[in-house]
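Re: your question from the hallway

Yes, I did run it. Sequences:
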Amino acid sequence: MTQHQRLVEELVSTWYRTIPLSQFMQIEVLSFTDASHLTVNTKQSNPDMNLSLPLVSELITTAPLAPNINLHQTMFAGSIYTLMTLTGWGMVWLQQQLASVTGDIVLAEAQVKYIAPVRQQPTARVIWPALDLSPLTRGRRVKAELTVELWCQDVLCARFCGVYVSLPFAK
Amino acid sequence: MTQHQRLVEELVSTWYRTIPLSQFMQIEVLSFTDASHLTVNTKQSNPDMNLSLPLVSELITTAPLAPNINLHQTMFAGSIYTLMTLTGWGMVWLQQQLASVTGDIVLAEAQVKYIAPVRQQPTARVIWPALDLSPLTRGRRVKAELTVELWCQDVLCARFCGVYVSLPFAK
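Structure:
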């Protein structure tokens, strides 16, 4: 098991243990890819390769329709929002783990736009904006603005923009 | 039992029957007051009284902390949003019932701002903006922009602005 797989397992168990709603919704992580280390290696060997590589860190989650249905037999707006909220939160949490920094992550504000009905199990996707988390080690907060997209196969069904704040642990 | 009490019971049973998340969250209606008929009567008897009466239609809901907790031991952002979403949806549904019109109510977009941690059972409150729902009877959609506030006693903890669209039933 890789470090990333262990972190993803810890993330999901943290959700289920501390947020009952996440377990009821059966939220799962489909994949977490992180190319930040690849970036460094590539730069050392061949700077030109940076242009062609998808040097991003991406988290993809999902949740089944059954516990998240509404009276139109599509995914409930509250479930869609919650899945996207936790996807963004999860990305900040994973990046903090990878950077070996700690902080209490809270959602300060968010906007969501529902674009199309969700008639089958969707995926929620977020890309990390390569933010510097080191201020947390100096006792300062970090603000992360993340965009999460919800897809049903090749249809974009919802877009979420959330402002997360990570607060240094009180000493 | 008054007409309003019957409608509130039907609203909550509709939520629980069709949206599993609402039942898991234990969302309840605390009160629904509707002064729209009072407005008409008052105007007929004494127009000056309009200034002193709270001539509004207000829905107040709540949900306990236990199923809606997060890892900070406060109310989970997803639960806060969902409670406010359903409070706004419920208000549109109630107003449609009172106006004897029908329409499929969906949330098109929303903004939420988290102002303070929710450490005890909150109330979500929405006031109806006295919108004309009659276009639904002529086969036209109605757009309702609602603001829902979340309070813990006298502290405003979150504010939600949602754009709901009610679509006339297909014939």
